[in-house]
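Re: the request from the purification team.
They wanted to know what the chain is likely to look like in 3D before they choose a buffer screen. I agreed to run a prediction and write the result into the notebook, where they can find it.
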Amino acid sequence: MAHLSLRPQPLGIFPPPTGYLVLPPVDGAEEVCASLLAGCLPEQMPAPLRFYALSLANDRQGAWHALANDPTPEAYYNRFVLRSDPEAYPHLRRQLNGDLAALLDLVAYMGGLIDSPPGVETLRGEIAACILPAHAACALARQQYDAAIAALQQAIEEVRQISPLFAAQLLDHLATVYLNANQSSAALQALRDAATLAVGGRLFDLRAYLSLRLGMLCQDQADGQRALLLEANEWFQEALRCCSVERTPDLYALAHYRLALTLLALAPSGNGDQATRERAIQSLRESLRVYARETHYNQWLNAQITLANALRISSTALPNEHLIEAVRLYDEVLAHCDQDHDPIGYGRVLANQGTALYHLGRFDCARDCLIRARSIFLSHRDYGTAALLEEALVEIDRRVSGTENREPRTEN
């Protein structure tokens, strides 16, 4: 019982345990293998390979039973993947060698049955690439970032040409290590490579995830750089092309929320930017289809406030409609926001609501909001913001009285 005769195997493409399963060389296996390497489960699966489809459907028990009477070495190994019996490992280890033995040791290591991952000196391709991340994890546990990066880079090169979807996921892992090592530029490039490799496959959720992650990193690293913001915008739109609110609601909502933030950063002010701001407003509305106060409170709060702020600064032909909606959104936030937990945030919402009310001509309500907000900022010694609010209050008094030379008041 030795080497795998069918190569390359679809290792590492799907989540465990499926990502560790191997296909035996039965009739039709090559075609199935090619489909799986592209991230697609064939509609018609040969009977000896039914275990794989069952595992992908999260029916681990059914997959194990489908292999129960199969005497092939691949079946022995696959049964261990699906049900890692510690008592079976020593017996299987004596029977298997070569590729299957190395994979068996990897599964045993991942299950805590042995203390170290198998070596990769004699292994190639997807077999080596499946094992090298375990070596990277060991290096990371010792804070050896260079060794972890080297192991992952080797794994990527082993499968870049033969299993692009596996390589894309390894590049995603590598990007995380780069970020932990404060190498953000290298992380960006790793994710760009990952997204490029994923384009040729049928794992649309993977493409959406990689595009979203890349867009978020571009956005986080932009620091006002328009080129990175524009790149982030493209990746968020790519993520949305690959996902749906029905299939991946959280990913869909986050992509829309981050897209909105990017668009608002690209169009901070001016009537010429209104079309971009309207796109941001629409994306925020889409995110709030998923982000409900009862299920996603923090995300709901951020999206709600951002939408209200975007509506407040909007310069549409009918600005009052946007301002009225903004005031309503601020009301909902204030009704469910804990002032004691985040007083400064609460004060900002009050101040923004006061500004919206001012533009609606509701001066008494605006004054009340701004006075309350000013009191919060003064109590937390944010004198700069308090002074700005005082100027706004003076302007309200001028508008109400029609006088341009009124002295500032001293309300508490």
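For the purification team: The chain has a mean pLDDT of 94.
Please add any questions underneath this entry.
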